[in-house]
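During the reporting period the student researcher (J.K.) took over the structure-prediction task from the postdoctoral fellow and processed the backlog of single-chain submissions. One of the processed entries is reproduced below for the supervisory committee.
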Amino acid sequence: MQPFPESVCQAIGNYVYRLIDPRNGETFYVGKGKNNRVFDHINSKIIDAEDDEGLEPKLERIRLIRNEGLEVIHVIHRHNLADDVVLEVEAALIDAYPGLTNLQAGHGSNAKGPMNHQQLMAKYALPSLDEDIEEKLVLININAIDDQSNISAIYDQVRYAWRISKDRACQADYVLAVVRGVVKGVFVADEWSKASRENFTDLDRAQNDISGRYGFRGRPAPDEIWKRFVGSAGKRITNEKMMHFQNPIRYWNV
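J.K. obtained the following structure tokens:
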């Protein structure tokens, strides 16, 4: 793939791009960059099939395309963007294309991503979480669950399995479960352990071992703490320092 010459790099500045599978026209990756960043993925060294254990989904897709004698289609979706705008455009495209191989969500997607009318009403009609909090917290962004009043379901989802600093997590007074910028649960973590089937025999989805990830065993926080952080239906996070962007883990006072 021929790279951009310097004159083109200077002209296009920051851009957002899509990688497309020529076999079905499906967009499988969205990214941002400058200069020749868009070609870094396409020109990456793709290892042979027999050696591809653990190959990330994006590179695996590229390898499969190349194995059929085809080339990835690349599209510069928007270019010459300001630094803050490029993040928003990338995030909007990631939200718009389901099934991407991106390992992380777009910037601000958890807080400002796609929501229907009822979700928006539920989120912005809720009271705000206090911004001046003295307790040490770990805030973990979890997927939306069908029944957000089911404390057991929230607990099972928030407690396993995260790429997290165990030392910092152990210092926290509480673990907050966050769904799209709203605190839906608060728990006391009694013990953090490596994410494995052996350590979490009571959790059906626990695997034999997930390298570098941890989970906790604990319990719902006392009623007065639950009321402060969650209330009757959840509390909105308005402090940017507590908000989740691309990383599902946030620390507060830790």
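The committee noted the following: Residues 47-53 have pLDDT under 50 and may be disordered.
J.K. will present the remaining backlog at the next meeting.
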